[in-house]
Amino acid sequence: MTILDIRTQYFQFENDFVNNLRCIPMIVRYKLDSCRIKLQLADWAKLSFEEKEQLADLPCQFPDEIEAYGRYVNALVWKYTGQYPSVLKQIADSWNETQEIPAEVKEKASEFACPQLTTEQWRNLETLQRFALVKLGRSGHEGSNFPIACSEFGLM
What we know:
Blueprint (H helix, E strand, L loop, with lengths): L14 H4 L7 H9 L2 E2 L2 H6 L2 H9 L5 H19 L4 E2 L15 H9 L7 H6 L2 H12 L6 H8 L4
Antiparallel strand pairs: 1-2
Helix pairs in contact: 6-8, 8-9
């Protein structure tokens, strides 16, 4: 089993919301994907600041941690909504593929006239950085953060 170094961190491109955690930061999104939970922003908004911080800080790497994290998220959402969050049937985890740059990252780089990444640059990024680029490449409303993230990760 590969051991990934996923530590709690917030990226500079998230600075406009990390002081109040009004949006779901990448570290939490990564952990939610790890336990296959789709947390709606409306449900996230109902959580206390302390609960949001806990979701960023709690371990979610090994199978028992992933299971515990998922139970905790489910309990929190149930507490505020009386419903459980959706379960993701499958995760397209192209950020874990280090031999080839995912198509959505290449396309978003072209869209924003960012330099095309080399496979070596992609491979040398931390897992959470690759995750962020894939998510920013897929997402319409956050796409403007893609070039900012590329710059932050030393790719421009």
